Amino acid sequence: MNLFVKKNLEQLLQEAESKELKRSIGKWALVALGIGAIIGAGLFVRTAAASAESAGAAVTISFIVAAVGCALAGLCYAEFASMIPIAGSAYTYSYATMGEFVAWFIGWDLVLEYALGAATVSIAWSEYLNKLLKSVAGWEIPYEWCHSPFQSDNGVHGIMNIPALFIIFLLTLILIRGVSESATVNGIIVIIKVAIVILFIALGWSYINPVNHTPYMIPEGTAGHEGFFEHGWGGILAGAGTVFFAFIGFDAVSTAAQETKDPKRDMPFGILVSLAICTVLYILFAHVLTGVANYTEFEKAGKEASVAYAIETYMTKYSWLALFVTIAILAGFSSVILVMLLGQSRVFFSMSKDGLVPPIFSKVHPVYQTPYKSNQIFFVFVGLFAAFIPGDVVGDMTSIGTLFAFVLVCIGVIIMRKTDPNTPRPFKTPFSPVVPILGALVCLAMIIGLGAENWIRLIVWMLIGLVVYFAYGRHHSKLQNQKVA
Fold first, then answer.
1. Per residue in 164-192, is it b (16+ CB within 10 Å) or e — as a string?
2. What is the pLDDT of residue 484?
3. 25 with 256: CB under 8 angstroms?
């Protein structure tokens, strides 16, 4: 048995011609899909968290560092997506460049980003729904029906998080119905939340107080910020690892390659344009937020409510905007969950076609041409986490899992240039191998900034994956069985 057996590029291109999944997505729908996945609550929550904990007003630089890492990785994703336009994203690219064993780990790793990420976001969606209900109707969902059994408040214990389960169920139904329908719903949500982000930037600009941007970085010796990653440039790097969560999602665009009308042309466009648009909005948003309110206030106000706090405290003329921000956060959560569930089902669709996970994950609906069984299974899996597990269980594991995938995609581009130099590349990563090497290094630096605790969690998750691979994957691998035959 060869653990590092690679998938033949010709075989991958033949799979790309398969009509199992319906090709119905155009390039602007891909851009909307990318923005839908990228702009979520991460922008509203993580900006304040990174600013208060480590970066101060220089969180704008943290966004630039994170954006550089994402852009470098995005260029590598774009090359692979144009070369190998099939579902599977980083999993498929790794299979062609570094072999089955590495590909398995990437596929398993992406469960952290997509499935568990969707569960975490759905729990936060439930919390913000309650905030909206309280501000609009003066009524809240009873505590026991919007929290897990492991949570309690004033003697009241949670039973089940019904709103979190509901949003997972609703979005799963949309995904089963068809990817074009999903793209339409996502497009509407994108328009709503981008409009509200632009509105905050435009209205908040005149409320910027230059004093809040001085000093720009948290000075050394500031109380509560003694560690290297809590002030100065170290704080900016840690902040980049924190706000990186707000960029997660552009890679999910590549999981829809097999359902794109012209993937060789449209995939690079969708990945890079969505990333560019979001980066500009992020930097402007962070600049305005840290200018309207001082970073020291975010810890007191509560990171999740910091944007609403800044509006209600300093932009009193526009207090109605705080309600709109809550709506934007709910919309942002919804589209992030939608794209994460889409990405997870497509990754396992590819893994199932290769025999590494059971064939039920690649069962396609006879009418809608979607992997509906995979959607149903992940509804149960994600729904169990959403309904019965607290939202802070996963934490930064989503970010570290994604960064790990980015590192391997960057390395994969260098390997593929050596092993298959003559393969047509509709889009080529510029200045290779410099760009892929820098992409891998920047992403590794952000992983270091996330701390040893998250490394341990990642290693434990990968060890579980190791057991699953040797218990099932290697015995059912179609490529391994071909080699044996």
1. bbbbbeebbebbbbbbebbbebbbebbeb
2. 52
3. yes
List Cα–Cα distances, 40 to 90, 303, 306, 394, in angstroms: 22, 15, 15, 17
H-state helical runs in 293-391: 296-301, 306-314, 320-353, 372-388
Rounded Cα–Cα distance for residues 373 and 186 (Å): 22
30 within 8 A of 266, measured Cβ to Cβ: yes
Give yes or no for a contact between 72 and 313, defined as CB atoms under 8 angstroms apart: no
151 touches 113 (CB < 8 A): no
Model confidence at 21: pLDDT above 50: yes
d(CA 343, CA 271): 14
The torsion angles phi and psi of 293, rounded to 5 degrees, stand at -125, 150
Retrieve residue 417's tokens.
């240039």
The span from the CA of 344 to the CA of 323, in Å, is 32
Q: Identity (one letter) of the amino acid at 163?
A: P
Evaluate whether 324 touches 206 at the Cβ level (below 8 Å): no
pTM as predicted: 0.77
What one-letter code names the amino acid at 396? D
The SS3 call for residue 152 is: strand
Tokens of 112: 């952290």
473 vs 9 pLDDT, higher one: 473
**Distance separating the N- and C-terminal Cα atoms of the chain:** 12
Which residue, chain included where needed, has tokens 């794109």?
260
Q: Which helix (H) or strand (E) holds 157?
A: strand 156-157
Per-residue pLDDT at 268 exceeds 50: yes
Query: 285 near 51, Cβ under 8 Å?
Result: no
Max mean pLDDT range (85-89, 158-162, 239-243, 393-397): 158-162
pLDDT at residue 254 above 80? no
Q: How confident is the model at residue 485 (pLDDT cuts 50, 70, 90)?
A: very low
The pair of structure tokens assigned to 8 is 């033949």
User: How is 129-150 classified by DSSP, letter by letter?
Assistant: HHHHHHHHHS----GGGBS-TT
Q: Indicate the DSSP class of residue 51.
A: I
Q: Is the pLDDT of residue 13 over 80?
A: no
Q: Which helix (H) or strand (E) holds 115?
A: helix 115-137
Q: How far is CA 38 from CA 11, 16, 171, 276, 384, in A?
A: 32, 26, 17, 11, 24
Question: In whole angstroms, what is the distance from residue 356 CA to residue 348 CA?
Answer: 9
* Mean per-residue pLDDT, 79-104: 82
User: What is the distance of C-alpha 102 from the center of its chain?
Assistant: 21
Tell which wins on pLDDT, 389 or 353: 353
Nearest residue to 397 via CA among 120, 165, 124:
120
Where do we find the tokens 């890679």? Answer: 251
Measured CA to CA, the distance from residue 50 to residue 68 in angstroms comes to 17
Query: Which stretches within 138-262 are classed as H helix?
Result: 162-177, 179-204, 232-243
> Which carries the bigger pLDDT value, residue 36 or residue 344?
344
